[in-house]
Design a protein that fits this description.
With 236 residues, the chain is α/β, with parallel strands linked by helices. The chain has a single domain, classed as Phosphatidylinositol (PI) phosphodiesterase (TIM Barrel). The protein is built from nine helices and nine strands. Strands 1-2-4-5-6-7-8-9 form an eight-stranded parallel beta barrel, surrounded by five helices. Helix 6 links the parallel strand 5 and strand 6. The longest helix has 16 residues.
Length: 236
Amino acid sequence: MSLVFAHRGVHQFYPENSMASFREAINLKADGIETDVHLTKDNVPVIFHDENLKRMVGKNEYLKNLTLAEIKQFHLKNSSEKVPTLKQLLSYLNSVNYHGVLNLEIKTDQIHYSKIEDIVTAIVDQYVTNYRIIFSSFYAPSLKRIHQISNRECAYLFKKNDQIGQQLYHQGIVQSFHSKYSYIIKNNTIPLRVWTINRVRQMKICFLLNIEGIITDNYNLAKKVQNKINNYKNCY
């Protein structure tokens, strides 16, 4: 059965990638959580999607230019939530005995943070014991480095062209792909998780094709659609 990943947590009512959005994912017993990791000026991995704070915080500052203490002075827009650290998220998942899947996207396709792969994998190895981790990235060198230092699953992220991903897959560096929806028509041999699936029709097709997983902004809707599909399958 396809796994449903809460994209940046469950953020219909909470800021994306906030602890509140992750708590809601746990409340809903999400199959998986997808989130993003950057590095601060003082080399602390933080959970945030953009390289810049402008969209989510209202400050035109890059994460790489700020220390964790400076970032923690700010709130995510329209909330009391602050940017979480990777350790904060992993500690929380341990505290609730999480047994789902956590996808950590290493955000190195725009800015390559020095040694982010080593720093993140060391923290993951320290904190994660009871649930599955997937490292994903658009940036092949990050996946190659993680493959060198970790035996956890790596997934190649791409929008259209899978040429690099195919090479990484056949070299044993990645074990799965994370792609846009259009790619499911072209490939059904490599384990595939598709992003960002928010339309009912696309959800239905993914579930009927038994895609490895979907990454969605609307977790509740996706699970409803999946349950209907499963009930339909069970009738035949």
